[in-house]
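Record type: monomer structure entry
Structure origin: computed from sequence
Chain ID: A
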Amino acid sequence: MNNLRKAVAASLTALMLTTASAPAFALQATGGNSSQASARAAVAASDLTGHWAASSIAKWKDRGVIGGYEDGSFKPDRSITRAEFVSVLNKLFGYSAAGSGNFSDVPAGVWYEKELAAAKAAGYYEGFPGNQAKPAEAITRQDAATLLARIFEMENPAGAASVSYKDASQISAYAQAAVGSLKNVTTGYEDGTFRPLGKITRAETLALLDRLAGSYYAKSGEYSDGTLAGNAVVSKPDVTLKNMTINGNLYLAAGIGDGNTKLEGVTVKGTVFVSGGGEHTVTLDHSTLNKVQVDRKEGSVRVLATGSTRIETLTADSASKLELEAGASIGSVVLNQPVAVTLAAGAKITTLTVAAAAGQSVISGSGDIGSLVVQAASVTVNGKTVSTGTAAVTGGQAASPSPSASPAPTVAPSAGGSGSTPTPGASVTVDLADKEATSQTRSLFAYLQDIRGKHILFGHQHATDEALSKPVNGMTSDTYAAVGDNPALFGWDTLSLEGFEKPGSREYTPQQNRDNLIQSMKAAYASGGVLTLSSHMPNFVTGGDFYDTNGNVVSHILPGGDKHDQYNAFLDQIADFANHLKDDSGNAIPVIFRPFHEQNGNWFWWGAAFTTKEQYKEIYRYTVEYLRDTKGVHNFLYAFSPGSPFNGLDETFLKTYPGDDYVDILGFDSYYNGSSAGWYDSIVDDAKLISKIADSKGKVAAFTEFGYSGMKRTGNADKEFYTTLIEKLQADPDAKRMAFMLTWANFGYNSIYVPYRDSALYPGENQELLPDFTAFYKDDYTYFTRDLSGVYQRQVTTEEEQPFMHIASPIDRQTIESPTTVIRARVLNEQPTKVVFLLKGSETEHPMTLDAQGFYSASWQPGAELNGSETDLTVKAYAADGSVQSQTIKLYFGIPEITMKTYTFDTDISGVKSDGTWQGSGPMSAEFEHATVNQDGKLGINVTSLVYTENNDDTWQEIKIGLTDLESVPLNKVGRVSFEALIPLAAGHKDPEASIRAIAVLPPSDNKFYSADQPKLKDLPKVTVGSDTYALYQASVDLNDLDLSKSATGLMVALVGSGLDYTGPLYVDNLKLSNVYAKTSGDPARVDDFEGYKNSNDLLQSAYSAKGDTNSITLDSSHKIEGSNGLKLGYTLAGEGYTGIVKSLGSVDWSSTGRLKLWLTPDGSGNKLVVQVKANGATFEAYPSLQGTTPGWVEIPFKDFVTASWDTGNAGKKLDTINAKKVSEFAIYVNAPAGSSYSKTNPFKSTLYIDDIRVVAGEAGDIPVGVVQDGMAPGTLFDFEKDAGSWKVGENHLQAKAPAVTGDVSSGGSKALAVEFTPAAASDKSYFLAGSEVKMNWNGSKTLTAKVKLSSGTAKASLYIKTGNWVYTAGDAATVDANGFATLTLNLPGVSNLDTVLELGVKVETTAAGESAILYLDDVTLSR
């Protein structure tokens, strides 16, 4: 065990490495009479009473790991010798077997002879030169850390770089990695030191064992301890762990000997270390293990995987047996010693590598090995020798891997007649994002691929959750009501798991939401349907929803981001759902998972205005890897679906494409507005493009989201939408090759996407596009549920994955802003021999090590020479066969401060000298010496004749400090000098205004750089030195003249006093030279001056997202008004008729300005220029002229902005002092003028130049004055005298029917709303909700009331509203019955977001089953 190997250290409470060792051997009491025993007990009791570690000591004594002394005492605060320390570790892990020899200084017959021999044989105690153990010496803290890291097989990927103790330099080189590996267990002492040469006590040792081996199994038996937060150790045979989750490591220790150990239904997220077990077997049954490491020092061990056991990686470092029964599988196996591997039929290993030292390994059985990599001689498979190289083993027979499948042809075969479902044929091979995808998932992919061009599956979001039609034959579905058949494709969203959409609810637990969604999906799957899951994710930074675009979310959730754990928790919820989604036979049900859709738009936080293309690729990759590789989700096909249009360009569609290894389905989203004549042609163009790209990549093409946006009950401009769309698609041989088309949910009468028949709200009414949808259904091209067959029964295999490596962080073209950056790379489908990173211009390879998250990682501290500039970073992964994978990314640097050199003065004052003194009142002197103040070394300056005079000669009292050892410091990179100074308060006794400041000088120039402050001595923080009080001055001087820095030959700093009078010592410490980077000002008034992109077009293009027809943006140094650069906008007007760029501003306040100003060179085209601002959720536009070509300033008063014509929800609003407080986006568009003939075959191309876009103060009246308006007037919202409005039943567990107006009863008028339901016994689901979606402002309102009664029986009823991001608020429940109308009340003060009321309704709960009853609701009223 010469190398420290990785283990997941438990996340433990910090304990000073007082907990960095484990105390020791203790003598056991022997013999003695009862009085002696009583005396010993008394001593022990007094020894431990009240001690901080008493409970830990008692625990480990009971476990037999440690004992007391002969006199009954424990001596908890006594230091521990090396021999005693080793004894404890041996007992903990069960090491007892001695090797061939012992240490030279261990005499025969001493009590620790066998202990040290066993420790040496185990490999964790290496000793000292001369084969010495030094057993009687008290063990040091750093040596204790080293032994613990070895025996617990921990390592520190960052090495010494992560050891941040103040005395880190005192930690010996051999111990630095070990100390770093324990940083999650101990934080050192309060003063920031580790004290590596200090001693460990017995109590401290046991406290540490609590953290490193919190769960300890040293007695035979069966244990079911639920979830364990940290590590677990099994040190005795015949232990069974059952139905447990271990978040740390599991150590099957040497103490098991040749006995049995069994894991049954156990999940281990860390590493399982197998050090014991012998021929009598370590059995892993129905368990899920991340990593298994087999390394038994005392003989062979048999590892048996049974049931559904899944192991991600297994490494065998000792001779052993590995057996897999049917159903068991391992992702990757590496044999470093000869091993006998047996695979039963139905068992599988994805990749098995037989290393050079594992010759004589034997593989037998009838199982499968996807890739057998043989690097050793004399390896046999079922008795046949296998030569070195790579082969596949199928059914126990070694053969070469199967060839790759060819992509499907571009031109599709002609469609068959109605119902001509493609028939499953011979087994085919497909290339999926998940090679381990389930058989049903593989079959689904093959089916979708086969159906392309013949038919298209029609899909509907929330098809069986949301309906405007009355139920038909008990089926709630608008598709079924319309045509008597359900869609072929059923869509849901992860919002259902969060409870925001049906079948979930915010009132359910996460498990209830999961189970409800599973139930709905199982029903659709049982009918033969295909399932999809999109993901409208919450904003992990702000807590808002997916429309909340603030916070640069993706940068925070990527690996290394501060919200990464929150994102993982969200993915855990998806994985939990996916892994529970099974049919009645226990088979995982396939789902098409579609995250991060429409990413080229700017309405979601992952959109192009807020996420760079490189960030998008990496978060998509991470999502797939985490679900597939970490969480074991193997029933997902992954869909990639940006929004249309793509202008016929592959590169536009693929701009954010994460790669073939991560995507199965290529799709696009697009919605029709009912009037755009070119939309259908655009859809055909996009479908053609994507179909061809999919064919070239072996992917499925699909129309992942479409619809008629704004479809109304009647009065629609286009009543043949569905048939026109499929006619257009079918007319093109490539465009018709869409596997499916999914439309959105019928959430209400303002959100209709499938025509309804016999409206539940308007009885007898059919939506006017119903005839067209019926014709759409009858077309042979479209498939619905009844057309499906053979979707999940095909025989399909997956291609072998090729090795792939990518850099996960930092992201390509990222600006590094932290002094330390963690480089992370993912290496897939191979085990590299080494992974390294190197920088542009250097051939030095820096090692990277595998971390707990499966990344190869390394900490990196960029040098000052990179700050403010750029470099290329390359990561290389070397394979055993000599091949190298490599990726290079470009990085920019804007680190606020990089320390280049620090003078700590801890032990001496080398590197500085006195450069003299000066004061106007006469000579003074300053002598330098090393001083120790409050146990800390400092530069002592003994000042003589620092004199205060009353004639103002004392305003400049200078003590100069010259820096002498600057040979290694590039002075042109030093931008700041800082230090701490202690000046006695007594120095200001004559002048109450006495002050201090700092300066710096760069010889040969005598120009002075001044600190920004000159504080008064009396105002500074105070520090006590002996009996004197000193002021603590923290000086900082910026060297902001680059020319002087470039020509500098030295550096001098000085303390400059004013009004001081003193003779005696001053102190200086922590003098630091730093490189600094001044970030471009975050002035909210500046939209863009194009100076902050480091002359990089890549950075510029990352800041803007392109819209519409093709355009390009670059920095231009010729056309500008000031600075170095302006913007060159090259644009094309073609099929879309518009083009533009959008920049996210976050959230800035322009309410104190009044005009938007920009410098513009028009192109004389006469096209329509649109300057667009998004503020407070509304979109405002102004229209400067493009006539002429003379450059000049354009100023637009805010009063001239109007609401965009398409933003009907905000019509009439002004860019006033209220809305201008929250400006989030700026955009520039060019539109084709009315009547123009621009098209794809007749495009218009031109160029605009723009610079210095900003807002400025205007004249009076330039910005309209906004007034905070109260909400709507009080009064009755619903009296139901005319109709039921938009009321409908929501969550429904009481068989509630659609609301209807009745004249049978009312509270005031002649009618009320009636909802019939069936009461049920009290449970968490004995209720229903009836409500109405609204969009109201209730600011200023006090109460919401409603009148309710029942036709019979009793129930509880309450009012509720949903506001803001659909936040649910309910009033107090009241008992209602048939004895007259009761009043329900919801008090509104304190309810958030009353300006955005989205839904109101009533919840009815029952407590006993009974006959059907009717809820009557009337007079829903808002009051102030």
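Annotation 1: Residues 1-45, 157-161, 401-425 have pLDDT under 50 and may be disordered.
Annotation 2: The domain at 430-628+636-798 is CATH 3.20.20.80 (TIM Barrel).
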